[in-house]
Specification:
The complex is a heterotrimer of chains A (256), B (291) and C (317). By secondary structure, chain A is α/β, with parallel strands linked by helices. Chain A is 41% helix and 23% strand. Chain A is globular. In chain C, strand 2 and strand 3 form a beta hairpin. The chains are: A alpha/beta (256), B mainly alpha (291), C mainly alpha (317).
C-alpha cells in the first residue's frame, strides 16, 4: 500500500509550467529523493506536496485521502512535515520553543485552558518540553535548548528545523536540501540522521544537490528536468539512465 | 449627465488630485525605505502655512511658493538625515512610530511658529467660477488639476527616463543589488524624502485657497493620502494617482448623494471592500513569495 | 533542566513586581489628581497588554483598536442610561459585542498583510468613530453622553480610591492572562506566525484562526478598559474613538517594547503620565512630546523594557 500518490501533477506560473504532469508513488518506510538540475522544479514540487502551492492540475492522495487544494495546516494534520531550503526559523523564539511549535497539533490547544492556566496545563507544558528536548537530543542540538533561535549557528539551525518537523510526529517528512551549506562532516551526520529517521518508521522525501548523499541514502529516486519527470528508479537504475546522465549528471560533472 | 453629477465629479477630481499628490509622496518614501511616513501630512501643512505667512509678509506669490516648497523639502531631508537614517535596522513598526513622533513634533512646532488659527491663501488667479457642462469650477481647481497633471508627467519622466529615477526604482526593488551596481542608496533615501516633502508642500499650497489651512490640516490629508496609496497599491505611481482620484470622487459623490457626515464612512467601506477582493490594492506589484 | 525554572521565574517575578508596585503606589498618590492619572495608566495598560498580544506577539498591526474601546464604552453607556439596564449586565453585553464585531470583521480583514492591514484597521476604527459622532440621538454626538456608575455586588463603585483598586486588580488579571497565554501552545502558535507564517502553517497552525483569535482577544481587552472607563469617568465623548487614540495605543505598545507584556504596561504608564508632566511646558508640550517619542525610538528601537532588560542581563554577567 503506497503512502503518497502523485498523479499528473502540474503547477503553472504565468506562462511557465514549473511542474509538468508529474506522477509517482511514495512507498512507506523508505527514502525517496527528488533530484534534477537547478530550476528543474524540485522545490515547487515539494511546495505542492505540503499545500504551500495549490496544483494547477493533477491529484495528491495521502494515505488514500485526496489533499488537493487543502491549506498547508491540513497537510500537516494529515501527517506531512517538512524543512525548508531557505531556513524558516521562528527567530522571535527560543530554540526549544521552535520545536514546541512543531508539536502544535499534538498539544492541547483550548483557549480558555491556556488563558487561565487550568490545572493540568502546567504538567502538560512540562511533558511538551521533555518531548521537545528529547527530539533536540535526537538531532544533536540539545545544547542550544534555552538559547534564542537567532543565536544558533547555521548547521544547528538546519537540525533544529528537522527537530521541529519531527515534533509533529509525521508519517512523511519532506527535507528540502538539508545538507546545503554544510561541510562534509556535517553532511555525513545528516546522512546518518536520515537513516535513523527511516529506521524509526518515518518515510522521507529528500530534495538534495549533494549526489553522494542522495545516492547513499535513497531507496528510490525521481529525476526532474524542466518540470517533467525524466526518470525514476533505484540509485543504480537512475545512474545508468542515459537521459539522466545527459540532463543532469553530465551537467553536475561539468559544474564540478 | 446631470449638472449635479458633473458638479460632484468636478469637486471630487479636484480633491482627488490633492490626495493623489500626497499618495505619491507616501509611495516614493515607501519604495525607498519600506516606511509609511506618517509625517507626510505635515509636509502638506508646512507648504500651505509657509506660503500663507510669506504672502502675508508681502512676498510675491510665486516666490513664496518656491520658498515654501524649499522649506518643506528641507524639513523632509532633515527628517531622513536626523531620524530615519539613524534608526536604520529598526523594525518597520518602530520606524512608523518615529514618523508619528515627527508628525507630532512638526505640529507642535507649527503651533509655535504660527498659531492654532485657520488661515486662507488668496486664490492664484481670482475666484470667479467658470461654467463647465452646466456645473461650475473654481479657477483654483484648474490650477490644482493642471499642476497635478504636470507633476505626474514629470515624475513619469523622472522614474522612466533618467538615471537618477531608475536608480531610485532599483533601490526599491533590491537595495543590495542596487548598491552593488553603484547606486548610492543613502542618497536615494534622502532624495525620496526631499521629493515627497516637496510634493506634499505643493499639494498643501494648491489646496490652501480652497480648503483653508491650519497647523493640524495635515492629519486628515495625510490619512487620506495613505488611504489613496493603499487603495491604488502601495509603491505604484499609477496606483497612487488612481487611488487618489477614486477616493476624491467617492467622497464627493457620497457627500452629494448620501450624506456629508457619512462621506468618509462610504469611502472607507469601499476601500475595505476593494481590499477584500484585491488584498494588495488596485495596481499591486505582483511578486510570488519564495520559500 | 535549567530552561523551565528560569522561564517560570521571569513570569512570577514580573507579576510579583507588578502587584507590589500597585500595592505600594498609593503611598505616593497624595491627591485625587494623582489617583486619576494612575487609574488612567491602569486602564490604558489593560488595552496595551491585549494589543501587544496582537502586535508584539502575533505580528499583526491594528490602527483601529480605539474603535473597540469606544464601541464597548458606548454600548455600556447606551444600555445603562437609555435602556435602564443594570451596569453589570450592560458591561458583559458591551464587551461581548465588541468581541463579536472583532470576530466578524477580523475574518476578512486579517487576510491582509502589513500596511494593508494597517489601512483596513484604520478604516474600521474611523468608521466606528464617525458613526458614534454622527448618530447623536443615541450617542449624544460630539458632546458625548453621561454614564451611570458601576456597582459591584450591590455596592456602587465611586471615588478615585475605590476605582484605583478595581483597575489595579483588573490590570493584574489582564497581565496574568496574557503571560499564561504566551507560554501555551496557543501563544506559541501566535508567535510562530510572527516568526515565519509559512513554517507555522507547515507545523499545523491555521493562520486565519489564530490571527482572528489574537484580534478578538485584543479587542476584548480594549473593550474591558473602554467600558470601565465609561463608568469610572461617568461621561464619554467620541474623542476616545478617534484614530489618534488608536495610534496613541499602538505607540504605547511599541515604546514599551513589542513582545513584552510588562513593556506594554510601562509604555502605557510613560505615555499616559508624560502629557501630564509636560503640561507645565504649555505651548512647547506637543513639540517636546513628539521629540521624546522620536528620540526614544531612535535610540531604543526595541522599546524601553527589552532594551533595559538586555542591559540588565549584560550587567549581571
Amino acid at each position: 500500500m503506497s503512502l503518497l500518490t502523485v498523479d499528473g501533477l502540474s503547477k503553472q506560473f504565468g506562462g511557465l509550467k514549473a511542474v509538468n504532469d508529474v506522477s509517482f508513488v511514495i512507498e512507506p518506510g523508505r527514502v525517496h529523493s527528488i533530484i534534477g538540475p537547478n530550476g528543474a522544479g524540485k522545490t515547487t514540487l515539494l511546495n505542492l506536496l505540503n499545500g504551500i502551492y495549490a496544483p494547477s492540475e493533477g491529484r495528491i492522495a495521502f494515505d488514500g485521502h485526496t489533499l488537493n487544494g487543502a491549506p498547508p495546516h491540513e497537510f500537516a494534520a494529515a501527517g506531512i512535515a517538512r524543512t525548508f531550503q531557505n531556513l524558516q526559523i521562528f527567530f522571535n523564539m527560543s530554540a526549544l520553543e521552535n520545536v514546541l511549535v512543531g508539536g502544535h497539533l499534538r498539544a492541547r490547544r483550548g483557549l480558555a485552558g491556556a488563558l487561565l492556566r487550568l490545572p493540568g496545563r502546567v504538567a502538560d507544558e512540562r511533558a511538551y518540553r521533555d518531548a521537545a528536548l528529547e527530539l533536540m537530543r535526537f538531532v544533536g542540538v540539545e545544547a542550544y535548548a534555552a538559547a534564542p533561535a537567532d543565536a544558533l549557528p547555521y548547521g544547528a539551525l538546519k537540525r533544529l528545523e528537522i527537530a521541529r518537523a519531527l515534533a509533529a510526529r509525521p508519517r512523511l517528512l519532506l527535507l528540502d536540501e538539508p545538507a546545503a551549506g554544510l561541510n562534509p562532516t556535517e553532511t555525513a551526520a545528516i546522512d546518518e540522521l536520515i537513516k535513523r529517521l527511516v529506521a524509526s518508521g518515518i518515510t522521507v522525501i529528500l530534495v538534495e544537490h549533494n549526489m553522494r548523499l542522495v545516492m547513499g541514502v535513497s531507496d528510490h529516486i525521481v529525476v526532474l528536468d524542466y518540470g517533467k519527470k525524466l526518470a525514476e528508479g533505484t540509485a543504480a537504475e537512475v545512474r545508468a539512465d542515459a537521459r539522466v546522465i545527459e540532463a543532469y549528471l553530465g551537467a553536475a560533472q561539468a559544474e564540478a | 449627465m446631470s449638472a449635479e453629477l458633473t458638479q460632484f465629479l468636478l469637486t471630487g477630481i479636484t480633491i482627488g488630485a490633492i490626495y493623489a499628490l500626497v499618495a505619491l509622496g507616501f509611495s516614493i518614501i515607501y519604495n525607498a525605505s519600506q516606511v509609511i511616513n506618517f509625517a507626510q501630512g505635515e509636509f502638506v501643512m508646512i507648504g500651505g502655512m509657509t506660503t500663507v505667512s510669506l504672502v502675508d509678509g508681502g512676498m510675491p506669490l510665486p516666490l513664496a511658493i518656491a520658498l515654501a516648497v524649499v522649506v518643506a523639502a528641507a524639513v523632509g531631508l532633515l527628517l531622513e538625515k536626523l531620524a530615519i537614517e539613524r534608526a536604520r535596522g529598526a523594525s518597520v513598526v518602530t520606524l512608523i512610530i518615529i514618523t508619528i513622533g515627527a508628525s507630532i513634533f512638526l505640529r507642535g512646532l507649527a503651533q509655535l511658529v504660527w498659531d492654532k488659527n485657520f488661515h486662507a491663501l488668496r486664490p492664484f488667479t481670482g475666484s470667479t467660477p467658470i461654467a463647465v457642462f452646466g456645473a461650475t469650477i473654481l479657477p483654483q481647481s484648474l490650477w490644482v488639476l493642471g499642476v497635478t497633471v504636470l507633476i505626474v508627467a514629470a515624475l513619469g519622466w523622472f522614474f522612466g527616463r533618467t538615471l537618477l529615477g531608475k536608480g531610485m526604482l532599483a533601490t526599491s526593488h533590491n537595495r543590495l543589488a542596487a548598491e552593488l551596481v553603484g547606486v548610492r542608496v543613502k542618497g536615494m533615501l534622502l532624495l525620496a524624502f526631499g521629493l515627497s516633502a516637496a510634493l506634499g508642500a505643493i499639494a498643501g499650497i494648491l489646496t490652501a485657497p480652497i480648503t483653508i489651512t491650519s497647523y493640524d490640516v495635515g492629519v486628515m490629508l495625510g490619512l487620506k493620502g495613505f488611504a489613496a496609496a493603499i487603495l491604488g497599491g502601495l509603491g505604484s505611481g499609477v496606483g497612487a494617482v488612481a487611488g487618489g482620484l477614486a477616493l476624491g470622487i467617492l467622497e464627493s459623490l457620497g457627500a452629494g448623494f448620501v450624506s456629508s457626515a457619512y462621506k468618509d464612512v462610504i469611502a472607507f467601506v469601499i476601500i475595505l471592500a476593494v481590499l477584500f477582493f484585491r488584498p494588495s490594492g488596485l495596481f499591486a506589484r505582483r511578486s510570488a513569495e519564495r520559500v | 533542566m535549567t530552561v523551565w525554572p528560569r522561564l517560570a521565574q521571569a513570569r512570577t517575578g514580573g507579576l510579583a513586581v507588578l502587584v507590589l508596585v500597585i500595592a505600594l503606589l498609593p503611598l505616593a498618590l497624595t491627591n485625587n489628581f494623582y489617583y486619576e492619572v494612575a487609574i488612567q495608566v491602569g486602564l490604558n495598560a489593560i488595552v496595551c497588554v491585549g494589543l501587544n498580544l496582537l502586535i508584539g506577539y502575533a505580528g499583526q498591526i491594528s490602527l483601529g483598536h480605539a474603535g473597540f474601546y469606544a464601541l464597548s464604552a458606548y454600548t455600556s453607556a447606551i444600555l445603562t442610561s437609555r435602556f435602564g439596564w443594570p451596569p453589570g449586565a450592560a458591561l458583559v453585553v458591551a464587551i461581548g459585542s465588541a468581541g463579536l464585531v472583532a470576530y466578524v470583521v477580523g475574518r476578512p480583514i486579517l487576510r491582509l498583510k502589513g500596511h494593508y492591514l494597517a489601512m483596513a484597521t484604520l478604516g474600521l476604527g474611523i468608521i466606528i468613530s464617525i458613526v458614534i459622532a454622527t448618530e447623536d440621538r443615541i450617542t449624544g454626538g460630539p458632546d458625548g453622553m453621561a454614564v451611570p456608575p458601576l456597582a459591584l455586588l450591590g455596592f456602587p463603585l465611586a471615588g478615585e480610591r475605590v476605582w484605583y483598586w478595581v483597575v489595579g486588580v483588573m490590570l493584574v488579571v489582564a497581565v496574568w492572562l496574557a503571560l499564561n497565554l504566551i507560554d501555551s501552545p496557543v501563544g506559541r502558535a501566535l508567535r510562530a506566525l510572527h516568526g515565519s507564517e509559512v513554517a507555522a502553517q507547515v507545523a499545523g497552525v491555521d493562520p486565519r484562526r489564530y490571527k482572528v483569535m489574537a484580534f478578538v482577544i485584543s479587542a476584548v481587552f480594549a473593550a474591558v478598559a473602554g467600558s470601565l472607563t465609561a463608568h469610572y469617568a461617568g461621561f464619554i465623548t467620541p474623542a476616545k474613538a478617534t484614530f489618534l487614540h488608536s495610534i496613541e495605543l499602538v505607540t504605547m505598545v511599541v515604546l514599551g517594547g513589542m513582545a513584552s507584556t510588562f513593556g506594554a504596561v510601562v509604555g502605557a504608564a510613560v505615555l499616559t503620565t508624560m502629557p501630564q508632566v509636560l503640561t507645565a511646558l504649555k505651548d512647547y508640550e506637543m513639540m517636546v512630546f513628539g521629540a521624546v517619542l522620536m528620540l526614544t525610538m531612535i535610540f531604543l528601537p526595541r522599546g524601553l523594557v527589552p532594551t533595559i532588560g538586555a542591559a540588565f542581563a549584560r550587567w549581571r554577567k
